[in-house]
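Record type: ASSEMBLY
Status: queued
Input:
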Amino acid sequence: MSITISPKSKLSKNDIIIHNFRKKVVKLNYSSKLPSKPKKIDEASYLKLAEKVGKDPTFLNDNLPPRAIQTAS
Amino acid sequence: MTIYHPELFKQLLESTILLDTNVFSTAARSLDLASFLVLLRKESNCVFATIPSVIFESTNGSSSLATYNERLKYINNTVDAVIPTNFIDDIQDFQVLMAKLNGGNKAYTDFLLAACLYKYRHTNIQLLTADIKAFPPFFDRLSIITTEQNSGHVVNFGLYHLNESSYTKALTKALV
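Status: finished
Output:
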């Protein structure tokens, strides 16, 4: 397996193709200072997105006990 | 339905609220809590923050880039900033005390969230979490919020703040 930059035609089946991966990931706002003002969000679209994420059964399965209980058992 | 103290919005005026992973998991399964978070931000003019470890937990298990991005977008829309936690090497007193008093809780994310409450203790910062037994007694619980998931499951959240006086007493005692 190798990571390489080469014309597509020269790639073998074991090569990993990374093409602008960073640009494809949603950017988060990292800040070492605490933010001073809340941003404005569109409530309807936020609720819709939350609901969509919550429907994914692999998203933070709520049947799991809290961390403190997991580590104590 | 989400139940909270009638003075809560006033108490949290212009504060920073640090969100634990269980806030994201519950809000995604509770229209009540998600709506409450929107209302809280609007009424209290407070800001929501979280840490990279919570993002790791929330995106863990994403089966595709699209799923990963959808989760990140949800987190991004919920919080105003992600606070880096690379300061922990500078707070060894806190590390020693947590190692002694909170040794039963091995969860690193809990430790990092608690560390943020310590580092930013002179600001108006609170942690919102459903892990109500995860922290030692020098963290004061300011309020309880009870909400219901769409499935009917009831979840209790606590709002925590570091009590500096209790912390100093505990540290003095621990170092003797």
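Annotation: Chain A has a mean pLDDT of 77.
Annotation: Helices of chain A lie at 21-24, 43-54, 67-72.
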